[in-house]
Amino acid sequence: MRIHPLSRAVTLAILGCGLSMPMLAHAEFIKDSKGTLELRNFYMNRDYRQGSPLPAVKGKSPGESKSYSAEWAQGFLLRMESGFTEGPVGFGVDGLGLVGIRLDSGRGRSGTGLLQLDNETGKAQDEYASLGATAKMRISKSVLKGGTLQLKNPTVQSNDSRLLPQTFLGTHGNMLELEGLDFNAGQLNQVKQRDSSDNQDLTLNGNSVATSDQFRFAGGSYALTKELSLAYYYSDLENIYSQNFGGIVYTLPLAAGQFIKADLRYADSSDSGNADAGSLDNKSANGMLSYGIGAHVFSAAYQQMNGDNAFAYIGGTDPYLVNYVQIGDFAGVEEKSWQARYDLNFASYGIPGLSLMTRYINGDNIKRGNSNDGEEWERDTDIAYAFQAEALKGLAVKWRNATYRSNLAKSSEDLDENRLIFSYTTSIW
User: Fold this and answer.
1) Is the pTM of this model over 0.70?
2) Across all residues in the chain, what is the average pLDDT?
3) What residues make up the domain containing 92?
């Protein structure tokens, strides 16, 4: 495969920065540093069954449609993390370099979210790339970061389900000073979506008109015991929405190789400030109960939305909901949904590295106009294998299959989807 000049330039630039760091650093800065390169080869096919609009471009009828999307791309993800300088206050820097290269696509097949689209032609660009840097400071057990961020907490979950991950610009502090308490606070100003090289203002999911450059959050989890933890977070997307979240996770060990786990979540969302996205009212209650025995985990989940609006979260991110799955989030207005899930680890059967996940989700009572007759369901299957041989260490493959049906908006009624992902991760130093 030919590496484009831009890809080479980006990679070499990041490597050059990483190699120059030791000259400026103290011992721990160097000793604790690490660099990894992930090669992610991604094929995705989505059959729309009933047709879906083509990307809007000049000179083309807006009524044009396509029956499917299919794209193939290669991603390069270079991550570098320094240690911290010595002393009571330590300093460090992290770097992130991302390159996506089109292997196969076209206007009639684009739209999978793998590649950045050209606004003039509606076709996927040959390549796109971005660089990110994060300054960090450590005091005792607390770390403050500023710059490019990827976050995973109940208020915001960076999406990494395509070729390249979603990133944010902002600041984030993590405090671990008190035993059992994991406290987080931060502010996000812009987002770079998974199929873009441009930073943009933040939006509400499903509403790209109203924008904000201030998302603030604070909260954390506290382990009362080894088995029980509580969580609370508050977040506010300025002039769009605010949200209170509470959660409980309880894991009960049983006999050898058995456990029961309960994961309960509640969120109350309302409009914030000027309410630029309109009035907002949503209360979500959801939870999952799991039973594990040996290689098997059986799970059941229930999720219910109340209020005049769908669940509120930042556009493009993963909502923190038990029934957020491969295609749907099952978080429509007044929606009630349930899930049955099964996980299998084949290590117990002599095939370490091989795993299976399958689930079925059904949602109904979705408000559409003056009635609550909206319905949807989804069936997902994941099969993954991480190669165990020493010569193939770091190589993994995953096949993801999904079927989605609904009577909602025509553009999302019926979908059949396949994703095939090969990834290879290696340590640079």
Assistant:
1) yes
2) 90
3) 1-139
